[in-house]
């Protein structure tokens, strides 16, 4: 039986399929990471202090604090690098 795709197109189709699969996996990974970060308990006072003292947007302070599992000292050290 003949393939609906000419064999000369196979590398192109294979490459596109790999790219699509990679993008889908990356999207799932990002979504999973965002859920993990949202689950981290943080102190709102820490967000306010970091944002005010380092003159940052509160969203940046909150994200950094979540990335460091609520550890304000580690978050500040990361921001000051």
UniProtKB/TrEMBL annotation:
Transmembrane segments: none annotated. CDD domains: UBA_HYPK. Gene3D superfamilies: DNA helicase RuvA subunit, C-terminal domain. Residues 40-80 form the Nascent polypeptide-associated complex subunit alpha-like UBA domain. It holds the Pfam family UBA_HYPK. PANTHER family: HUNTINGTIN-INTERACTING PROTEIN K, HUNTINGTIN-INTERACTING PROTEIN K FAMILY MEMBER. This is Nascent polypeptide-associated complex subunit alpha-like UBA domain-containing protein. It comes from Ilex paraguariensis.
């Amino acid at each position: 039986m003949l393939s609906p795709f000419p064999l000369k197109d196979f590398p192109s189709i294979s490459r596109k399929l790999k790219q699509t699969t990679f993008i889908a996996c990356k999207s799932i990974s990002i979504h999973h990471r965002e859920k993990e970060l949202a689950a981290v308990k943080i102190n709102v006072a820490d967000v306010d202090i970091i944002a005010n003292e380092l003159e940052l947007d509160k969203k940046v302070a909150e994200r950094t604090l979540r990335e460091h599992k609520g550890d304000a000292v580690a978050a500040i050290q990361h921001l000051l690098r």
